[in-house]
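Mods, move this if it's the wrong board.
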Amino acid sequence: MSYISTTLDNLIHQTAFANLTWGNYLMILVAFVFMYLAIAHDFEPLLLVPISFGMMLVNIYPDIMAPAVGESAGGLLWYFYQLDQWAILPSLIFMGVGAMTDFGPLIANPKSFLLGAAAQFGIFAAYFGAIALGFNGKAAAAISIIGGADGPTSIFLCSKLGQTSLMGPIAVAAYSYMSLVPIIQPPIMRLFTSEKDRKIKMEQLRPVSKLERILFPIIVTLVVSMILPTTAPLIGMLMLGNLFRESGVVRQLQETAANALMYIVVILLGTSVGATTSAEAFLNSDTLKIVALGLIAFAFGTAAGVLFGQLMKIFSHGKINPLIGSAGVSAVPMAARVSQKVGAEADPTNFLLMHAMGPNVAGVVGTAVVAGVFMAVFGIV
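Not the wrong board. Structure tokens:
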């Protein structure tokens, strides 16, 4: 009888119910909320589904993220997480993004680079805000990149600056705000534009030649990497993927980078990012500050893009719709779709999507450049 009672007692104490804290239950509830948003409302499901599942797993079984010690093997997701820390997965994500992205609207309208640059203002607003809240320079820089709405770049910079203890909150905040673009951006866009502004129709973009499309990724890689060599892993992979797409001679590589490889990397990155959100690591005052700073950065970036769009509207004598400035944050292509949606609400015949894609893809390059500037400032090689 004692054997049976001892066995049952051991079994009970081995269950998660006997070991979870209130914090673990809270994080599991947050994971369910993310799953709901992803599945029921289609908010970036490719990102939120693996992130939320990783979040749930680590709070049920923390050892799934246990590091390897000596001859003892680490947890499954800890090995995935090493690829984040080594900046491998963010760089591969950029290759996939490049393979899927049409830079034609940016090439056809190079002024879009200015709108992409303006939207990076949110990053610097968050940087100084983080400094004011007591974060050191490197931590503030890692946090501020959330304002670019670019998850891979946030993870990349966090790793390069040695701020891996903040990677979980930063990555979750970045990807959460990326998924919430359709909710966060429209009120800000309407605040800084009139209905007349939103009805502005833009001229059709000029055709872009195949030679221009092929030269673009090569020239951007050369120029940016020569000025900021530390951006080469991100910019290089982004433009390599785009060269696969535009050259037309390596269709198999383009399809692999944009599909099979991309989806594999998203699974590894998403689950490992979610697994950094154990209750012990996530539930603290720094996390709340990071989430708040990320929202402020994202709002400032959106507002700055729209306001710069207003300035360009004036100089172009009303030919530029300022709504496309909001797409300067690098949530591709979600932010461009939001510009289209808000414009179509004012005038159903207004088609802004391709015009908004210019600032949108410029924002991807811009955020990577800002990350390179931070690395240069802090002497990271």
